[in-house]
Amino acid sequence: MTQSPRKSAFGKPSSSGKQDFTKPVIVANPAGSMKPRSNAATNTQGSRPAAAAASKQSPVARAAVPPSEASLIRAAAAAKISPARAAAFHILSKVSNSASHSDDLLHSLAVNALSAEDRNLTTALVLGVLRWQLHLDAVMRPMLQRPDAELHPAALLALRLGVFQLLHLDRVPPHAALNESVELARANGAAHAAGMVNAILRRVLREKTTEAANRSTLAVAVTPAEQAHPAWMIARWRANFGGATVRRIAEYDQAEPPSHELFNADPALPEIDDGSRLVAELAAAAVGLPKRILDCCAAPGGKTAVLAVRHPDAEIVAADISDKRLDAMRKRMDRDPATASVKTIVADMTAPQTAHMLREGFDLILCDAPCSGTGTLARNPEIRHRLRPSDLPRQAERQRQILANALRLLAPGGILVYSTCSLEPEENEAVVAAAMQDVEGIEQSAAQPIAERIADLSPEAAEQLAASAFADAALRTLPGTQACDGFYAAVLQRKN
């Protein structure tokens, strides 16, 4: 669906792990290129309007392509590599070798200058390889003469692209996937490995319909979707949630996340994913007529906008540690009368706050803390390749500091909703328990009665949430169990 500027304004990713965006849905066409599904089939939130055709794109836009990326596309054309595969190779290389986010790179000037079909194929290749990378490696590495050998980065990436297309994109002609993967290796410094890439991909093609295509370095009972996640992640989820739930989470993470499954459409609200909206709606419903509201980790601003629409008469303050992201949020909010009155302030909530704007006395606080993002792997597949178990204690300590400092800003009787898009108890229940020890006079309230006051939940979603999304007074959505990303939310109140 083509989004208005306001509805798509809050759809950018957060480097902190908070996620408020989605990707366009992709399907293959018989010619092997990719095209977006019809509006009726997708209704995808946050996606960017596609150009009608490459020939109609602005010459100015084409001229604005960064030289390095433009030269990459020209070199690919000379090597008989499609622009989409060349762009995907370039983006995957950047994601692998830097802290770059795939979503940012997929919306770069160079990618936007491609035809609509090539942009969609690029997106499918990048997200597909990132989602399936560990399984792709498990399929092709046993076919190497030395399975544990260190491959040239270009050869490894070409193999991953080729194997993904052969196993997961049935409408891409196998010869195109195979030949262009070989050319990608050759054109990017791995000419010596071109023969190996060709041989491995031909073997994958031969064996794709046999059990040999499902080789695993994990336990026999592990599904390909589970295998596409780090083993330590699957093990801890299995211990925390059980095997059946883990399989649902893993399957959910391997596809485009659903949209508009929980809520009835509301044209007054920004276009954010259902899990993010659920948290914002829970916070908005927690206090009837708040006079002062704080969103203390606000950027990119989707949840702040929901609070502003639901409480138009309240004074709303949006704080974030990043002045750059807060400035971008400020510009977006100024374009919409519903959010133009929101006040913004740069603040590091890991430290006690003394600014006048953040003086004690908020009736409602949303503390959507930066987190590991393990509940959003369908949207942010690179997280699974970057996150380590040792990162969780560091995240939890920062979250504890943020939450404790936010709790100190509550007015007597005020309510704070603490939330993350993490599935990990260290970042959720443990943080809440620790912060309640740090700050006196705080008690936890049940989230379910508040959630029952959310007006726009569809009847089916309300019934599903009531049956499976509340435990220990908190709200928890699990990907694949609920039709949204994984979120945790706890409601905390300061005693009078």
Description:
- It is a single chain.
- With 496 residues, this protein is an alpha/beta fold.
- It folds into three domains: 23-214, N-utilizing Substance Protein B Homolog, Chain A (Orthogonal Bundle), CATH 1.10.940.10; 224-253, no CATH class; 274-494, Vaccinia Virus protein VP39 (Rossmann fold), CATH 3.40.50.150.
- The protein has 22 helices and eleven strands.
- The chain has helices at residues 5-8, 39-42, 59-63, 67-78, 83-97, 102-106, 109-112, 116-140, 153-168, 174-187, 194-207, 224-227, 231-241, 243-253, 274-286, 302-310, 323-334, 383-386, 391-407, 429-438, 447-451, 459-468; strands at residues 26-28, 34-36, 292-295, 315-320, 343-346, 362-368, 410-420, 442-445, 470-471, 474-477, 487-494.
- The strands form two sheets. Strands 3, 4, 5, 6, 7, 8, 9, 10 and 11 form a nine-stranded mixed sheet that branches. Strands 1-2 form a two-stranded antiparallel ribbon.
- Helix 9 packs parallel to helix 11 and helix 15 (274-286) runs parallel beside helix 16.
- The N and C termini lie far apart (47 Å).
- The relative contact order is 0.11.
- The model is unreliable at 1-9, 11-17 and 19-67 (pLDDT under 50).
- One of its GO terms (biological process) is regulation of DNA-templated transcription.
- Pfam families: Methyltr_RsmB-F (PF01189), NusB (PF01029).
- Belongs to the class I-like SAM-binding methyltransferase superfamily. RsmB/NOP family.
- GO terms for molecular function: RNA binding; RNA methyltransferase activity.
- Residues 47-64 have a biased composition (Low complexity).
